[in-house]
Amino acid sequence: MRWSLSFFLFGFLAAVHALSSSGNRLLVVLEDASEKDSFSMFWSDLEARGYNLDFQSPKSDQLSLFELGDRAYDHLLVLPPRSKGLGPALSPKNIIDFMDKDGNVLLALSGKSTTPSAISSLLLELDFHLSSDRSSIAVDHFNYDTISATEKHDVLLLQRPGQLRKDTKSFFGGEGVLAFPRTEPHTLGNESPLMAPILRAPATAYSYNPKEGSFSVEDVGVTGTQMALVSAMQARNSARFTLLGSVDSLRDEWFSATVQAPGGKKTETANREFAQQLTAWTFKETGVLKVGTIEHHLAPTAEAPDVELNPAIYRIKNETVFSIEVSEYAHDRFIPFEVPSDDALQLEFTMLSPFHRLDLQPTSRTENSTIYSTQFTTPDQHGIFSFRVNYKRPFLTNLEEKHEVTVRHFAHDEYPRSWKISGGWVWIAGLWSVIGGFLAFVIMWLYSAPAPAASKTKKSQ
Amino acid sequence: MPTKRAGASPAPPSITKSLSSGPKTLPPNASVFDIAHYVWQQYLATTSERTMLLDVFMVFLVLVGAIQFAYCVLAGNFPFNAFLSGFSAAVGQFVLTASLRMQTSNGVPKEGTKVAKSKDESGQVGSVSHERAFADYIFGSLILHFFCINFIN
């Protein structure tokens, strides 16, 4: 009864919910068809949000990410295979090509089996690093589930992640405890601006290889918060790749399990909400920015209230207004995009290097967009400039806008007349006194013709 | 040069005599003031009216130019184009006037000023008549004024 009710409810929600902003064809790569049922709630959640799930085995012959050169699916969900690899259709190169064509990938790992080297090399290409034996497991003796993992301590209990930094949006926050059973941890490469950890291990966690039998402290690879359990990579074309360390956390048993931390109370896990948030972000239901209209024009003045919109040419020292309309896709519709409190959307006015870098302020909101604008004076430098908005933040798709305009110098009749500048009055007076003196001199010269010459001409006549 | 020597040392009287066509000659041991006064008297006595008019105008131009330059030094050069055109008007007018003076004040006025002098008449080659020189002067000055007014905006 409860099941049918929830299905009815989800069917209703599916009608309300539209699709992901980038399509609804989802390929699920699942090697063992019998395992499909153990994720039934996860699949129903995805279908309720409008995805067309296509389950394929990696060994299938007709499996291909591309069809006639274009991608055949919008999103790819890979569950960890039992066998050695993912087959020729899902080679690292194919998956990278899939991302190059704006496909999104959610890749789950499991600590139960050794990760295939094909997946490991794919991850290395994206700068995710697994341990060298590819079969380590995250363990924490302080944040484990006392009900299910009393001996092994390999079911990690974690708080849901908040903001990554103060200037980023939180897409994975909320109340509740997450259970991560048998997690394969990974580390992130240094200095890649495209990657961001979504969920880090607690400070007391460490990783080890359970297959090596005896465990010694010297074998510890990575420990504490340098281990990431869930991470995201957003390519420069805004294609998203999410690495989930524990595929078991998506199983039905963990969607509604009751867990208990050492010395804590029994609580329900929030895995289901987290899985929804994770798939929603990966498959571009959240954190997708869209630029609407971009306008730039001269600031209207009392003399010229009507200004031309988006002119191709400006003059130096013009008061200029720039505005950009930004929307954010949230699950089923576009909403006004709000910049996080510690962050700023910035406008650059550049010719090779920025002459201005200004914070854009929200000036008005429509039903599904915010209009950011700023006013500035064009620099005292003529040339080909461009208005640039370059907003690249973790978990948000990249905004890069560039609009070229010409900035000309003053026309000959646009300078103020000389007498308007009081500092130049002395020189103006000097010039006109020279001219006046010249005229007086000419007149006096003409009236002072030498008498001897006149008398001599008379004599000669 | 000869006047200096006359003030510094006993000079031969032939120099002062040859220099003078004025009313009196200068004693050999005259003071600086006397020499200056003598030179001034000589100038007044020997210079034609037109040349003196030219000299007065040139002194006026020097004054105007000096005032403008001093103002630029004291008050700064904004607007610079006004300074350039005002100052260069004074300097250019001075140069034009100086060239007019060179062309018209060759000693006492001579005969036959209406036509260009021939070689045997004055010993000068390519010299021009006063009227022609004056017309050139007016033409050059008008061009100068046009450019300066245009440049000062």
From TrEMBL, chain A:
From the Swiss-Prot or TrEMBL record, what is one GO molecular function term? transferase activity
What biological-process terms (Gene Ontology) are attached? protein N-linked glycosylation via asparagine
Q: Keywords on this record?
A: Endoplasmic reticulum, Membrane, Signal, Transferase, Transmembrane, Transmembrane helix
Question: Where would one find the signal peptide in this protein?
Answer: 1-18
| Metal-binding is among the record's keywords | no
Q: How does it sit in the membrane?
A: Single-pass type I membrane protein
Q: Where in the cell is it found?
A: Endoplasmic reticulum membrane; Membrane
Superkingdom of origin organism: Eukaryota
Describe which pathway this protein belongs to, using the record's wording. Answer: Protein modification; protein glycosylation
The record's section on Pfam families has: OST48_MD (PF23358), OST48_N (PF03345)
Transferase found in the keyword field: yes
Question: Where, by residue number, does the polypeptide cross the bilayer?
Answer: 425-447
Example GO CC term: the record gives: oligosaccharyltransferase complex
* Domain called OST48 N-terminal: residue spans: 25-282
Describe the location of the OST48 middle domain by residue ranges.
310-448
**InterPro entries xref list:** DDOST_48_kDa_subunit (IPR005013), OST48_MD (IPR055459), OST48_N (IPR055457)
**Subunit structure, as described in the record:** Component of the oligosaccharyltransferase (OST) complex.
Q: Which family does it belong to?
A: Belongs to the DDOST 48 kDa subunit family.
Q: What does this protein do?
A: Subunit of the oligosaccharyl transferase (OST) complex that catalyzes the initial transfer of a defined glycan (Glc(3)Man(9)GlcNAc(2) in eukaryotes) from the lipid carrier dolichol-pyrophosphate to an asparagine residue within an Asn-X-Ser/Thr consensus motif in nascent polypeptide chains, the first step in protein N-glycosylation. N-glycosylation occurs cotranslationally and the complex associates with the Sec61 complex at the channel-forming translocon complex that mediates protein translocation across the endoplasmic reticulum (ER).
Classification via PANTHER family: DOLICHYL-DIPHOSPHOOLIGOSACCHARIDE--PROTEIN GLYCOSYLTRANSFERASE 48 KDA SUBUNIT
Q: What is this protein called?
A: Dolichyl-diphosphooligosaccharide--protein glycosyltransferase subunit WBP1
Upper lineage: Eukaryota, Fungi, Dikarya, Ascomycota, Pezizomycotina
TrEMBL record, chain B:
Q: Could you list the residue ranges that cross the membrane? A: 52-76, 134-152
What are the GO BP annotations of this UniProt entry?
A: protein N-linked glycosylation
Q: Name one GO cellular component term.
A: oligosaccharyltransferase complex
Q: Which domain of life is it from?
A: Eukaryota
Q: Which segments carry the region annotation Disordered?
A: 1-23
Q: In which pathway does it act?
A: Protein modification; protein glycosylation
Q: Which family does it belong to?
A: Belongs to the DAD/OST2 family.
Subunit structure as annotated in this protein's UniProt entry:
Component of the oligosaccharyltransferase (OST) complex.
Q: What is this protein for, i.e. what is its function? A: Subunit of the oligosaccharyl transferase (OST) complex that catalyzes the initial transfer of a defined glycan (Glc(3)Man(9)GlcNAc(2) in eukaryotes) from the lipid carrier dolichol-pyrophosphate to an asparagine residue within an Asn-X-Ser/Thr consensus motif in nascent polypeptide chains, the first step in protein N-glycosylation. N-glycosylation occurs cotranslationally and the complex associates with the Sec61 complex at the channel-forming translocon complex that mediates protein translocation across the endoplasmic reticulum (ER). All subunits are required for a maximal enzyme activity.
Cross-referenced PANTHER family, in alphabetical order?
Answer: DOLICHYL-DIPHOSPHOOLIGOSACCHARIDE--PROTEIN GLYCOSYLTRANSFERASE SUBUNIT DAD1 (PTHR10705:SF0)
- The protein depicted here goes by the name Dolichyl-diphosphooligosaccharide--protein glycosyltransferase subunit OST2
Q: Which organism is it from?
A: Aspergillus nanangensis
